[in-house]
Amino acid sequence: MTTANSPDTQRRLDANAAANPRAASNAGAQRYAGPLIALHWLIALGIIGLLALGLYMVGLPKGLPVKATLINLHKSLGLTVFLLVLLRIVAKGVLHRPPLPPMPPWQRAAARITQVLLYVSMVAMPLAGYLGSSFNRYGTRFWGIPLPKWGWDDPQLRELFFGFHTVFAWLLIALIVLHVAGALKHQWIDRDNLLARMLP
Question: What PANTHER family would the database entry show (predicted)?
Answer without folding.
Answer: CYTOCHROME B561, CYTOCHROME B561 HOMOLOG 2
